[in-house]
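ARCHIVE CARD
CATEGORY: sequence design from structure
SOURCE FIELD: tokenized fold
FIELD CONTENT:
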């Protein structure tokens, strides 16, 4: 055992590089989407059950707080998709060097945010 091991590790003070942040957000976004599946399945079943169920589902989805949650889930989907494509390219050996990996990580973060803003604009229409 080395005597230079940290005794107290403060996780909030660790500064991850951008590819590490993208990796963690990729995992978090995947978990968010999986957790949302039962809610969407229930809403879909309720909407198909009857006209009253459809109205109740539409009213639920019309709530501004729920729409904010849908926007967060839209970001999760877009980020997971873009970061997943990035990881597939890395698995193929493209963009493995450090400068390219950092650039592709920034690109995936920014692209997911821009696309989320576009989705938000579409939700307002």
């Amino acid at each position: 055992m080395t005597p230079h091991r940290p005794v107290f590790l403060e996780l909030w003070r660790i500064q991850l590089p951008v590819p590490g942040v993208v990796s963690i957000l990729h995992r978090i976004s995947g978990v968010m989407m999986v957790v949302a599946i039962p809610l969407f399945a229930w809403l879909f079943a309720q909407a198909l059950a009857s006209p009253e169920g459809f109205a109740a589902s539409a009213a639920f989805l019309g709530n501004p707080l729920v729409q904010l949650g849908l926007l967060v889930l839209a970001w999760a989907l877009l980020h997971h998709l873009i970061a997943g494509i990035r990881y597939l390219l890395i698995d193929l050996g493209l963009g493995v060097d450090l400068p390219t990996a950092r650039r592709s990580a920034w690109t995936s973060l920014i692209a997911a945010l821009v696309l989320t803003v576009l989705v938000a604009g579409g939700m307002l229409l």
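CARD ANNOTATION: Residues 18-124 form a domain with the 3 helical TM bundles of succinate and fumarate reductases fold (CATH 1.20.1300.10). Residues 22 and 105 are 6 Å apart (CA to CA).
SHELF: design records, drawer C
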